[in-house]
Recover the amino acids of this structure.
């Protein structure tokens, strides 16, 4: 038993070392990726459920690593948070997204909003409202052109500071949306406390809706709750025609998902909007 314990320990430390090493490597790679412009934003359109128009686009980070290929934001955002790189990275995302909204206004004559994901660590930066104001002013964007998406869990570490910062952003005219809604607390007081204007029903419930009655129940309950608070509702992760039909019927305001459009480079979205009927 003793020797097995020893082996287990040896195995444990070596796998820990690999994990630490991987994380360090990812951190270094991420630093140089930011310097060498290997990061890009893709944009996934959001459609109005009333007339199928594109009303906005969610900015999603893409990292094409020269050797390792595509790295998912779900893998590198946590590293960026742990190392503090998220602040520089997050501001680059907001700046780039705002620049793009302006470009769409000027060249494509469409007034879209851009939704940007903000992580918990990023939100707790006291200078965030000021920094965002400088960016929206610089690009002469109006209130409503920038939405931010936050998860409930991102708000839990320091609810007081988070709600103060969100109140400032709200006062600046920034729309605040609860992302992955239904997976966290999903309480009414939470939504009020954090000045939310809308919720995005999490894609996991949408995905399970057809096979699982509980998921369908959650989707309906979340929508009813949001409506009772006069919040707007986006359904994300729509992959089939029947999901689109159903969520439209349930009264969602905006629809998003692979069935309608995948995340794409900005130029591709510009082209898509030109081709869409008036
Ligand atoms: P999220 O904000 O919940 O974004 C939705 C994710 O679902 C995206 O994955 C999107 O590409 C994907 N998606 C869209 N439509 C469908 C669909 O119909 N079916 C399925 N299965 N998936 C769909 P992605 O781009 O890999 O991003 C993953 C997560 O990484 C995001 O989840 C967000 O939390 C985070 N993230 C991405 N970009 C940023 C960023 O700029 N800043 C921060 N802080 N987080 C980001
Ligand atoms: Ca999101
Ligand atoms: Ca989401
Ligand atoms: Ca998510």
């Amino acid at each position: 038993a003793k020797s097995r314990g020893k082996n287990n320990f040896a195995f444990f430390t070596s796998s820990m070392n690999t994990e630490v090493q991987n994380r360090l490597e990812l951190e270094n790679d991420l630093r140089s990726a930011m310097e060498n412009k290997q990061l890009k934003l893709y944009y996934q359109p959001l459609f109005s459920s009333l007339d199928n128009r594109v009303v906005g686009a969610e900015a999603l980070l893409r990292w094409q690593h020269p050797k390792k290929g595509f790295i998912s934001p779900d893998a590198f955002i946590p590293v960026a948070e742990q190392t503090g790189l998220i602040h520089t990275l997050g501001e680059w995302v907001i700046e780039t997204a705002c620049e793009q909204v302006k470009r769409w206004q000027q060249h494509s004559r469409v007034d879209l909003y851009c939704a940007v994901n903000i992580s918990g660590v990023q939100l707790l930066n006291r200078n965030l409202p000021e920094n965002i104001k400088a960016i929206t002013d610089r690009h002469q964007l109006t209130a409503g052109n920038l939405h931010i998406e936050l998860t409930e869990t991102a708000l839990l570490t320091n609810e007081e500071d988070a709600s103060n910062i969100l109140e400032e952003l709200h006062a600046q005219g920034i729309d605040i949306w609860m992302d992955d809604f239904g997976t966290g607390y999903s309480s009414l007081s939470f939504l009020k406390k954090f000045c939310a204007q809308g919720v995005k029903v999490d894609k996991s419930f949408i995905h399970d809706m057809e096979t699982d009655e509980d998921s369908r129940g959650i989707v309906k309950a979340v929508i009813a709750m949001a409506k009772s608070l006069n919040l707007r509702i986006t359904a994300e992760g729509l992959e089939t025609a029947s999901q689109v039909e159903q969520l439209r019927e349930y009264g969602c305001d905006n629809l998003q998902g692979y069935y309608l459009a995948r995340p794409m480079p900005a130029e591709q979205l510009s082209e898509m909007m030109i081709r869409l009927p008036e």
